Amino acid sequence: MIVSTEDRVLSTARGDVFTRRWRVRDSRKSPIVLMHDSLGCVDLWRDFPERLAAATGHDVVAYDRLGYGRSARHPGDWSNRFIRDEAKHFFPPVRHALDIEHFIALGHSVGGIMAASLAAHHPNHCRALITIAALAFVEDRTLQGIRDTQAAFAEPGQLERLRKYHGDKAEWILWAWINTWLSNSYATWTIEESAPSFACPLLAIHGREDEYGSLDHLHRVAALGSGSVQKLPLDGCQHVPHREQPETVIEAIAQFLRTSVG
């Protein structure tokens, strides 16, 4: 299956947004929209989008959220509502500029929560939801995983890993993630605040050894769906299933879309 890429920079009221689309020739299927994690960006999806497009026959679209990658700096109104704000305020201009009517939402980690929020806030447009390692609440494992990553980034040269992809926005990205999830004001956050419920078909994927969240998160996400729900816990897998077990993840997504969307 032939897949080509198309990069665009969209001008929005809050700043320029970098997007990339992996196009499948002659595809008439709803595109899969990718939502990246707290330290991620378009480039950090690596070869996953291209492989996903080839396996499913769906175009795949990814964008750098404002403050990340090649998009403009975040406009500065960051708050504990950042997940819901993405769905309600930042995603719609991207969807409209790319002329996307219906879509499949797929997100990793905090992007998984955002994908669920897209499904909840755009029920007439989101045809299916796929979450990978989505977090549903703040537990001790979540906090310890973030503290361990914070300590790792304190080592000499580690911040350069982020600067490679985010430039001079890297430090803001790191501390926005750390300070939000470790704050007292976020301790009682739950996914229901960002995605109260959704009716579209759901595939929820989670590694059993995820260093940021137990399988309780998988079940909590699944409980929000009122339509068909599939859960895929993965043995021997941590927080990045699509990188650790790509063949399994891609095949599961392809099968899910064949049966749930067509």
UniProtKB/TrEMBL annotation:
GO MF terms, alphabetically ordered: hydrolase activity
> Looking at the Swiss-Prot or TrEMBL record, what is one Pfam family this protein matches?
Abhydrolase_1
Any coiled-coil ranges, and where? Answer: none
Domain AB hydrolase-1, by residue range, is 31-146
Give the UniProt keywords, A-Z.
Hydrolase
Question: What protein am I looking at?
Answer: Alpha/beta hydrolase
Taxonomy, top ranks, is: Bacteria, Pseudomonadati, Pseudomonadota, Gammaproteobacteria, Pseudomonadales
